Structures are given as structure tokens and as C-alpha cells.
Amino acid sequence: MSESITQPARIQPTRGPAEVVLAAQGVSKQYPVPGGTRAVLDEVDFEVVRGQIATIVGPSGAGKTTLLRCMAGLVTPSAGRVVLDGTPVTGPPDGLAVVFQDYSRSLMPWMSVRHNVELPLRGRRVGKRERRERSLAALADVGLSGNGELYPWQLSGGMQQRVAIARALAYRPEALLMDEPFASVDAQTRADLEDLLLSLRIRRSITIVLVTHDIDEAVYLGDVVVVLGGSPTRVEARLRVGLGPDRDQIRTKAEPEFLEIRSHVLAKIRGHRGSAE
Amino acid sequence: MARVAATHSRVTGRLTGPLTGRLVGVAVELWLPVLLFAGWWFASLGSGSLYFVGLDVILEALRDGWLGQAGAANVLPSLRNLAEGFLLAAFAGVVLGTVLGLVRPLANAVSPIVEFLRSVPGVALLPIGLLIFGIGTEMKVSLIIYGSVWPILLNTIDGVRSVDATKQDVLRSYRVPAYLRILGVVLPSAAPRIMVGLRTSLSIAITVIVFSEMIGSTEGIGYAILQAQRNFEIPQMWAGMLALGVIGYLLNIGFRGVEQLVLRRHRAMNTTPGS
């Protein structure tokens, strides 16, 4: 049980009414293995406030994806629960959209970009006209206006992941869950997509939980950084990032506060690895 | 699109226009049949054999017995039964295969029965078909369905089961309802496998229809061929087999056309380097 809420000196707590949208409460997960069980997650707790980006960072194999799948209702926790808008999550809830890492497999290649974005809306019986309006607006939001009639395989990897993000936006979820969404694109595209996410947060005030193994990305995008570590995985630290909503790849990453939190996260992750070996 | 066209012309080995490319393609397909046909023509010219008659005689019989009204009377009943049986088998195979592919316990439960039934060749059921239905259309259509449904069924089950795990996660997390999952994702994703099954089934269906017409029928291609043989109209018999070959070839071309239409997205996807 590591309940230490670490607050480095210059990191300010966020002000104003903090409405919790999504919360993990003591989430544990064990998988059966030959001769017993293997614990992956051990009492993971954290909260996500409306309009914020929470990033979950940890070494690979730390069960980050398992945690996200628990939050998405795709996996049932062995103990504890996930609460969305005050309601416990028992299966994939209505108010969550998920963006997966592998965009080439999460999009349907036989559907045009627009029909991919509209697929979840068709399932919700949204009328044809509204579907079209919402998909075109979402595609415009991710900078893909005029590409709706193309097919996913005609687009670059970064553009395909934009389509997946547009699909999530058009669904208008309470919160958006992203599982290593930028891990499969090149560095420049990755920076572009990170900035797209920040601008969407400002323009659409969406709530985002983003899993990543990249510490820079976690600090650059996060209002809150949840550091996972250990075996089984626990929350090592929850850090508030006071960099404000307006961030820049070059300027922000040179700010002392960014560097301080970054090294703090790095120490948490490496420190644990050191003690484990 | 430009990429697709470029790939195509690379395949045919020419950097010329699409029309030239297509002509080259046709020529590649045709040279051997033309050569064999010419060989047959000259080798059999003036043949005195009763059984291996000259090609010129066969072609004459083909013209008289298998083209025009006489041909239509022989061919149309076969094609009608074939179409009916094959389409019903396709429908049944895809529907049942989808259900069995999605509901694994059910598939496990019926799997021994399926394996048993599909091991019995369709033509082996002809005697019982004759008993139940007599020599009418029902007998032939049900034999075609029985004989050709298995490849469609098994390929559909496999195709439905191999829907990508990420796509299934997407469908679950967006709570896409079952009907839309099946029509929008499961079937399109299984389509290449289903087409493989259909192609195999089509050739089985042709075998079954000809055989059933030879044994229990008063019309159709198989009946006409056997009838000619029994009446010692050997040129007519040869002409019937030639006609059967041509019909099979045309059906296959038609099937390829349908397949290309159904899988056009899948094909384009595979020829695009981006994916």
C-alpha cells in the first residue's frame, strides 16, 4: 500500500471545483497461472478530474494496459472498482471511448474514414444527418477535413491515429482512455499528435486518461501524472503538473518545473527498478 | 489508385498503358488452349475411330445440339438448379457458419456431426435423394446444397473466429450492438475466407448437378451427355463435355468477377504500401 502523494516543492495543486469524473478505487488484478495466481495490479487508486489529462506512466510490463482495460470495463478487476460519474463500471460503460495503440487494426479497412468515425454512432441509433454532422466536425477537430471519403489504408500512420481519435470525439464520451496512442508513430508525428491532444483539451475540454511508457510524454501532456511501479504494480506517486494548459514542445520542455517533475518521475521508476534487482 | 495501377502494370511486366497490359494478359491466358485445340484439330482430322471422332465433327455436333434452342433446352435446367442449390448453400453456410463461429460452445457441440456429414460425399446420397424426392428438381437442388455447403460453412466459421482482437475490443468498448458487429465488422472481415469456401463449393456443385442428372433425371447437361453416349451419338457426347467445360470456365470467370467486387477494399488494402 503506497499511498504517498508526493508533492515536489514548486508544483501547485489545481484550484477551483474539482469534479471527479473517473476513479480507480483499490483496483487489483490477478491472473491464474499454473500453480497459483500472478498479481498484476495491487490496490491502484487515483482520480481524474473533469477537463484534465491524467497520464499513467510506468516501465513496460507494469500492467499499465491491464489498468486501462479495467477502467474501460474490458477486464473485470479481481478486487476494487472503477467509478465513472459516481456509477461503478461493470462492463464497457456508455460514457467512455478508448483509443488503442494499434491504429492499423483498430480501424475497419473496408469502411471509409467517415464511416469508421460513424460506426459507434450507428450503434447508438444516432440519426443519419446528425451522424454526418458529428463525424465531419470530429474530423475537422483532428485536422482531417476533406479526408472522410478516403479509406484508412490510404492514410499515413499518424493520420490513421487521428481518425481513431476523431471516432472517439464524435462519440462524445465523459472521458477518453488512450492506451499508448502515439507509441507506433515516428517522433515528429508523435509531437504533432501530442500537441493535437493538448489543443483538443483546450477547445473541447475533454477528460483524458493516457497510458504511456514515455516519461517526457507523460509530463508534457499530464495535469496529473500517476507513476506505476513494483511487482505487483502499485501507485508509486501521484504528481500534479502546474504547467498550465498552454504548452509548447520546446519552451515547456525547457522549463525548470518540467525538468524537475521529469527527473522526479524518472527517479521513482528507476529507484524501484534498482531496489528490485 | 495510381499506386494500384502501377502495381498492376509491374505484374504484367510492361510499363505501357492499361489496354496493352490487358491484351498481354489475355494473350498469356489464351496461347496454350489455342495451341492444344489446334493440335487436337489436326491430330483428329479424318479420324476413323468410332470413339475418338474428329474435332470438326464434334464442333458440328456442338453447333447443332448445344447452341441455340436445342442447347438452351439442355443447359438452362442445369443452370437453374445449380444457381438455386448453390445460392441456398451459400446462404445456409454463411448464416450457420456465422452462428457457429460466434457461439463456440454450440460449434463444439455440433462439430462431430459436421465432421461426419461432410465426410459423406454429396453424390453418395443420391440413392436416398431419389427415394425421398424422386427424380425431380428438389432432389437435385437438395443434393447440391448438401454437397456444397460444407466448405462454405467451415470457412465461414474460421473467418468469423479470426476477427482481429483489437477490432473486437473496439466493438465492445463502443458498445456496438450485435447486428452491427456482424454486418459491419465480422462478415466483412471474414469475407476473404468465405469467398474461398464459395469457390470450392461452386466446383462441387457443378460435379453434383451433372452426376445427379446422369442418374436420376430427364433433362439437363448430364442427362444429355449420358443419353448421347447410350445412343452411340459419340460426337454429341464429346460436344456435351466440351460445352460443360466451357460453362464451368464461364462460371468461374463470373465468380471471379463477383469475388473482385466483394473484396475490392481488401485487395486495394493489400496492394497499398501504407498498410
What is the total tally of β strands of chain A? 10
Named at the architecture level, the CATH assignment of the largest domain in chain A is: 3-Layer(aba) Sandwich
Largest pleated sheet of chain B: none
Q: For the record, what is the CATH homologous superfamily label of the largest domain in chain A?
A: P-loop containing nucleotide triphosphate hydrolases
How many domains, in number, for the residues of chain A?
2
- Report the major sheet of chain A: 6 strands, mixed
pLDDT averaged over residues of chain B: 86
Query: Which series of helices and strands of chain A comes N to C?
Result: EEEHEEEHHHHEHEHEEHH
Order of helices and strands of chain B: HHHHHHHHHHHH
Low-confidence sequence ranges of chain B: 1-14
| CATH-assigned homologous superfamily of the domain at 82-209 in chain B | MetI-like
Quaternary assembly: heterodimer
Largest interface: A-B, 30 and 24 residues
| Rounded Rg of chain B | 23 Å
What does this entry look like structurally?
The complex is a heterodimer of chains A (277) and B (275). Chain A has two domains: 1-95 and 175-277, P-loop containing nucleotide triphosphate hydrolases (Rossmann fold); 106-172, no CATH class. With 277 residues, chain A is of the alpha/beta class. Chain A has helices spanning 64-71, 103-106, 113-123, 128-141, 157-170, 187-204, 215-221, 251-254, 256-276; strands at residues 20-33, 36-49, 53-57, 79-84, 87-88, 96-99, 175-179, 207-212, 224-229, 234-240. Chain B has a domain at 82-209: MetI-like fold (Orthogonal Bundle). The longest helix of chain B has 38 residues, at 178-215. The two termini of chain B are 14 Å apart. The chains are: A alpha/beta (277), B mainly alpha (275). Chains A and B meet through strand 6, helix 2 and helix 3 of A and helix 8, helix 9 and helix 12 of B.
Could you give a quick summary of the protein structure above?
The complex is a heterodimer of chains A (277) and B (275). Chain A has helices at residues 64-71, 103-106, 113-123, 128-141, 157-170, 187-204, 215-221, 251-254, 256-276, and strands at 20-33, 36-49, 53-57, 79-84, 87-88, 96-99, 175-179, 207-212, 224-229, 234-240.
